[in-house]
Fold this protein.
Amino acid sequence: MSISPDHAYPKLIDAICQLDWPGQTADAMVSVAWAYYYFSVQFRENLATARQLYPADTKLRQLEREECNTANLSPWPGVAADGEAMNHDEYMRRTLALSPIPTERASELTAIGQAYLAAMRAQPAAARAASIASYEDGGLEAVFKAILGFSQWDGPLLHAFEHFLAEHVRFDSDPDQGHGALSRHIPIDDEVLPLWQGFYDLLVTSVPSLSLVPMPEMALASN
């Protein structure tokens, strides 16, 4: 992990980790899974942006192979057949279909997710590329471990989501062979702040019960 203490964005990572993950209901965590689906779409798109900016980068090419059109989450009942390759956001899309929610709530979460994607797609290409390093080299590992502090993973949707999170902790945690090692060479600065802010806002807008205390103030004026 190489999250820099000299930058402000780690405060947003900490804020996400400090959300009330253990205190959620199963229904609330289903909404978290919906929110994370939109984050996973954004992740894939940002990785594609990084590949476009650094087309000869062999480490990013390997990272793309392990995040896109891959069977490393397969098999999973109702989601992925044995050896079936797919993008990780496709895994999440299929996961959401395991436990349908009321149409009105699905429409609400879809609107939140689409607004989030529009805001993230408007970020500069360099920031979107740099976000991959901030996610893979410690940021998402910390967030996923925090989310796994929830303990009632009941039902097919939440079981599949738990599998996704636990496997990504495994993918990211090896300091030499994990996904962090494939991305940490990308320079990061606080241009990634709006992307982490967007993730925080996506989560607490989708699931207001996550936020029991105000988030620490972020110095975003320069962004």
Confidence is low (pLDDT under 50) at residues 218-223.
